[in-house]
Amino acid sequence: MSNSFELTPVEKDVTQLAVCVRGGCKVYGRGVNAATVLKSIDLNVPTGAIYGLLGASGCGKTTLLSCIMGLKNLSSGDIWVLGGPPSLKNGNKIGYMPQQISLCEGFTIRESMTYFGWLAGLSSEKIEERAHFLMRLLDMPPIDSTIGNLSGGQQRRVSFATALLHEPELLILDEPTVGLDPILRESIWTYLLELTTNKSVTIILTTHYIDEAHRADVIGLMRNGVIISEEAPQQLLTKFRVNTLEEVFYRIIITKTEPSVTKRLRFPQTARETTTSNGPALNKHVLKALVWKNFLWMWKNIITIVSIFVLPIASVFVFGSCIGRSPTGLTVAIVNRETEVRTCDLLACHDKSLSCHFLRYLDRKALNLVYYDSEDEAIWAVRNGTLYASIVIKENYTESIEYRLRNRDVADFLIDQSTIDVFCDYTVKDIVMYLKKYIYTSFADFIGDYLEACEISRETVAVPLRFNGPIYGQSDPNMTDFANPGVILTLAFFMAAALTAGITLIERKEGVLERTMVMGVTNLEIAMGHFVCQFGLMLLQSMTPLLVLFYFFELTLNGSVANVITLTVFSGFCGMCAGLSISSNFEEERTAAYVLLGMFLPFVLLTGMLWPIEGMHPFLRFFTSFLPLTIPAESMRSVLQRGWGLSRPTVYNGLIVINVWALIFLGISYLGLKFRR
Predict the structure, then answer these.
(1) Is the CB of residue 410 less than 8 Å from the CB of residue 404?
(2) GO molecular function of the protein, one example (predicted)?
(3) What pLDDT sits at residue 263?
(4) Are 537 and 618 in contact (CB under 8 A)?
(5) Where are the beta strands (DSSP E) in 67-169?
């Protein structure tokens, strides 16, 4: 091929070039950790030319291409692409084939073509027409083949066809012919030359095949972030008086040729500013493609989606079955020195064996009574961990308790004889508290019934303190009702966060997200595409635990179901925003999982789910009130237990906090995406 493109040190008009870069610098990091990837780079790509970009791995080629496509911003310098500054809104004009496949491996070729065709605004008929043409050109496998089942070379052909699908003005190809046989490579080059000749398509490609560089109109040799040579292949051969480009590249690198000084061009002012689209913020055909793709991905990963529903249901079942129930089957030692009788008649006044009656009140489902002859043996069993407590009744218990009940002046000896000694293992607080309450309640019932048998009011010996019926809640509150609000909101938050972060990071790891953005899709459109799909999942994900708690575990509900659902849904929405912020600032699913795990335990401990915040250290009490779920959990508790509505500050403050945190997470996402560029 004759090379008809010649570059002079200074182009007269920057608008005559398809791509032009002047003094382009790209720096990652700051201060001593700063890494300069592009160093005052100058690049000239004529319209309708094939530009071969050559360079070793790590020299900055991929970063330069990302800046040209608008995925990244230059730290300094000017750049001009297709008559204007780089913008993702040039997406329909640019076709991009990355070095990786960057396609959903679970999709078929037809589905992948449909997705990217819809993003480009093509009709289904046009997509079908172009797909069949490219399949014949590239000798691709059947159109309904799954991409993940294809060989590496076949996958690259599908990737190449995707870049060509919408007939772009600028093609950016990263190693397009790697892994292809010579005949197919020749066919591809013939088609590329036809595009530049007949349709004035501009092509920038990187390649490791130096023999392919002969076919390019212009060759740019890149080294250490700088274009050190940019000329037509024949000019390079003439300049260095050699016969092969291999020798040319060797001489350029050995002599460390510096790039020629390019006069600073006068760029239009818009080339220095970030462009904004005058079109609609949300494109209908783009949203259609994104939503369709996301639903299709979910369908093809149905096991993952089902597990997402099963996990919160299983968690609620485990929680409801394990937490908040009263202990049963506690083994307690009994040492009754008064009598060996274990079967009593009905309780009557002046009964001669009150200790037997007390043990009858005590011997219910909650306790397993084990009788011992010796107090030392019983206490040793508690020390040995065999028993939870030991109850010791003295010899003259009945006489002593009767005398104590009927007289005011009682000797210390009689007080001691009428007192039942209890020795407990205080290791587990909840068990000890339950034993104390159970034994005390049993004794109060026993002594009250005995007094009434003697026609004496049980209030005579009652503590002169009356706890009336509850204003809110139940007379016998349980841990389940206390923890349920936090459990519901925590599950809704973290399940939604994990789903959003996981799907987004998988999409980015496969390269689909980057390729989608090159097609001109904005971050807002991507977020809305995920929101539409995942909001429905989040609703089901949030509602199913509620249904389980209401139906199987009789969750207390004194307020409006609508308010419960509202708090749960907004908690899930906040979780979606949190997942988006995580995926915007981290690259790997493993890192995102670590972040979510690191957040989970503090949320459980600090949101008042397992312990009232009033019992925390004063500093933590102040700090925890700013967490996303602390105030909302109290709002949910007020709806469930107190029956309050949205007119109460305690309830609507929870909604305010959730939405404020959702905005904070969205802001973090925006900053993460901005600094990523």
Answers:
(1) yes
(2) ABC-type transporter activity
(3) 45
(4) no
(5) 76-81, 94-97
d(CA 480, CA 477): 9
The tokens of 353 are what?
Answer: 């064996």
pLDDT score, position 281: 63
Question: Which pLDDT value is given to residue 261?
Answer: 43
Q: Distance (Å, rounded) from C-alpha 386 to C-alpha 221? A: 81
Helix (H, G, I), strand (E, B) or coil at 298: helix
Specify whether the CB–CB gap between 222 and 54 falls below 8 A: yes
- The pLDDT, as a whole number, for residue 2 is 43
State the amino acid at position 103 in one-letter form.
L
What are 277's two structure tokens? 């689209």
**Residue 81 in 3-state DSSP?**
strand
Q: Which residues contact 91 (CB under 8 A, 6 or more apart)?
A: 119, 120, 517, 518, 519, 520, 521
Cβ(25)–Cβ(41) under 8 Å? yes
Q: CA–CA separation, 651 vs 423, rounded Å?
A: 45
List, as own/partner pairs, every contact residues 550-558 make where C-beta atoms lie below 8 angstroms and the sequence separation is at least 24, other chains included: 552/317, 552/320, 553/316, 553/320, 553/480, 555/481, 555/484, 555/640, 556/474, 556/481, 556/484, 556/640, 556/641, 557/640, 558/472, 558/639, 558/640, 558/641, 558/642, 558/643
Nearest to 545 by CA among 564, 521, 529: 564
pLDDT digits (tens, 9 = 90+) for 238-281: 888 888 887 888 788 777 545 444 444 445 444 444 444 444 56
pLDDT at res. 10? 42
CA distance 270 to 608: 54
Q: Are 147 and 110 in contact (CB under 8 A)?
A: no
DSSP codes, 247-273: HHHHHHHHHTPPPPPPPPP---GGGGS
Q: Tokens for 350?
A: 């002046």
Q: Is 14 exposed, middle or buried (0-12, 13-18, 19+ CB in 10 A)?
A: middle
Give, in order, the Cα–Cα distances in Å from 466 to each of 166, 459, 462, 469: 81, 10, 9, 10
Six-digit token pair at 229? Answer: 């040579």
d(CA 476, CA 379): 31
pTM (global) more than 0.90: no
User: How far apart (Å, rounded) are the C-alpha atoms in residues 557 and 384?
Assistant: 44
- pLDDT < 50 stretches in the chain: 1-3, 8-12, 257, 259-266, 268-279
Distance CA 4, CA 234 (A): 10
Given strand 35-46, what is the order of strands in its sheet? 35-46, 17-28, 76-81
The structural domains of the chain, ordered by start, are 14-260 (3.40.50.300), 295-321+477-676 (no CATH), 330-454 (3.40.190)
Side-chain-side CA neighbours of 197 within 13 Å: the count stands at 12
